[in-house]
Amino acid sequence: MTHSTRAELIPARLFGGIEPAGIAIVAVSGGSDSLALLLLAHVWATEKNLTLHAVTVDHGLRPEAAAEAGFVGAVCEGLGIDHTTLGWDGLKPHSGLPDAARRARYTIMEEFAGAIGATTILTGHTLDDQAETVWMRSQRGEAGSGGRGLSGMARITLLPGGTQLVRPLLEVTRGQLRDYLATYPQSWVEDPTNRDPSYERVRVRRMLKHNPALRDRLAEFSKAAARLRAVKSRDTALLLQATTRMEAGPVFHLDMELAIGAPRSVLLHALQILIAIAGGGEYLVPPERLAALIDEGDGEDRRSVMRNTLGGAVIERVSGGLRFYRERRNLESVLLAPGESVLWDGRFEIVNNTSDTVHAGALTRQALKETESTLNRQLDVRPRAALLSSLMVGTAKGDIHFPFADTGDGVSGLELRLTARAIEYFCPETDFPLLEWLHGLDAARNAFLQPRS
Questions:
Q1: Is 154 found in the same domain as 298?
Q2: Taking 50 as the threshold, does the pLDDT of residue 126 lie above it?
């Protein structure tokens, strides 16, 4: 194993740069990786005078899980660390269970973090986990779709609510951690699902266990891929800043005359980001599907791509560039009770801090007709088609507001924010430049909603 791959088990180095504002949560399942993380974090927190709170998530899938959580609680009690077991309630899916459990685990832990004032969640993902992840993604063809996923797991990732998910052990092998536990000595529990070959990760783990050289090469490759992803994200954010504007609707315009000189991979990535913002999709559209947007062609080919729909977004050629807005399809309608929040259509975050129930949905033709009749003017959105996918907010008093399509007093106590699920949710540190650009776009949105006289 190369020296650059393996990290020494020195807490100050492993947790370097991590500065929790408040309590730090340690995710502990009872397995060797998470227990080693707990012990290392305890040394680090003691040196830094930080408070740790251990959390075990019982997914309700195995009868042994409750006893394992009790085991973790006993270890924590011996260390003087508070411990809480959290449950995953409700129906479980019949397919895609590992991914659903992972998402539920992070959601549950982040909700708990908010309840206790924690800003950081530490997890025990190792170099072995990283190699397994990169191998599985490579086998799913991610190398041919821009290769972003081949960077593997990031050391720091922002969860949907803004909590930092930190993986301090990504350069440490599972064998190193078990050797560390043996010095205490400290036992651990073995999850039987880790021996079930019906799971892809188990099969990959067994394969890499017998090929440590491949494991190390995959880990090194993930670092190189992460550096490449960070550079592309930075360059894409700079390109978007220089070439993109947002107008009421929202409608996004890309100046192709300015953008066309950018490297092709960066320009394609910018198109992916704009489609994600306009369309609200959870994943980026594969770059190979976007070639027609920048390879103009001529004749019939040129006319065939004057208007396209990808990732829930309408893309239209206009003078000088492209414009993007949400297509009028699969638009949800929700009611928010006081205190509730929702990510609407993957594009807008709505928090109801009023004392009444609020309705959020797409602007209807009837509401548009009645509103413009009352105002005695048209809402200033171009193209008009973009209006019918705009957000409409209705109050219990019967007031209707269009926060991204028209100016007005708004609804006191109602917080609205432009976002993009594909960018902001589970955002790795490599993509922070894009996240900063997105936040800047939301901060400037009032620029296109000037008060009317």
A1: no
A2: yes
| Bridge partners (DSSP) listed for residue 58 | 87
* Domain-ending residue, one of 210, 225, 260: 210
| Same domain as 176, residue 44 | yes
246 touches 448 (CB < 8 A): yes
Nearby residues of 322 by Cβ (< 8 Å), 6 or more positions away: 253, 254, 256, 271, 274, 293, 315, 316
Could you tell me if residue 427 is inside a domain?
Answer: no
**Sign of the alpha-carbon torsion through 270, 275, 276, 282:** negative
In whole angstroms, give the CA distance from residue 453 to residue 450: 10
pLDDT tens digits along 111-121: 999 999 999 99
Both 249 and 347 in one domain: the answer is: no
Q: Are residues 117 and 45 in the same domain?
A: yes
Q: How far apart are the first and last CA of the chain?
A: 70
What is the per-residue DSSP string for 298-360? Answer: -HHHHHHTSEEEETTEEEEEETTEEEEEE-SSS---EEE-TT-EEEETTTEEEEE-SSS-EEE
Q: What mean pLDDT comes out for the span 303-309?
A: 72
Query: What single-letter amino acid sits at 104?
Result: A
Residue 288 has which token pair? 């190979």
Q: Give whole-number Cα distances, 422 to 76, 163, 285, 419, 427, in Å.
A: 37, 17, 10, 9, 8
**Residue 356 — left, alpha, or beta (φ > 0 → left; ψ -120 to 50 → alpha)?**
beta
Q: What is the CATH classification number for the domain harbouring 39?
A: 3.40.50.620
Choose the weakest-confidence range: 36-45, 171-180, 410-419. Answer: 410-419
Q: Name the strands in the sheet holding 321-326, side by side, starting at the edge strand that comes first in the sequence.
A: 244-247, 251-255, 321-326, 313-318, 307-310
Q: Quick check: 54 and 26 in contact, CB under 8 A?
A: yes
Model confidence at 452, pLDDT cuts 50, 70, 90, reads very low
For residue 132, the model assigns a pLDDT of 97
Domain of residue 338: give its range: 334-419
Total number of residues shown for the chain: 453
Evaluate whether residue 450 is within a structural domain.
no
Whether residue 228 lies inside any domain: the answer is no
Q: Using CA atoms, how far apart are residues 250 and 244, in angstroms rounded to an integer?
A: 13
Domain co-membership, 114 together with 35: yes
- Give the span between the Cα atoms of 274 and 442, in whole angstroms: 14
Other CB atoms within 10 Å distance of the CB of residue 259:
20
Q: Tally the domains of the chain.
A: 3
Cβ 29 vs Cβ 56: under 8 Å = yes
pLDDT for the residue numbered 296: 59
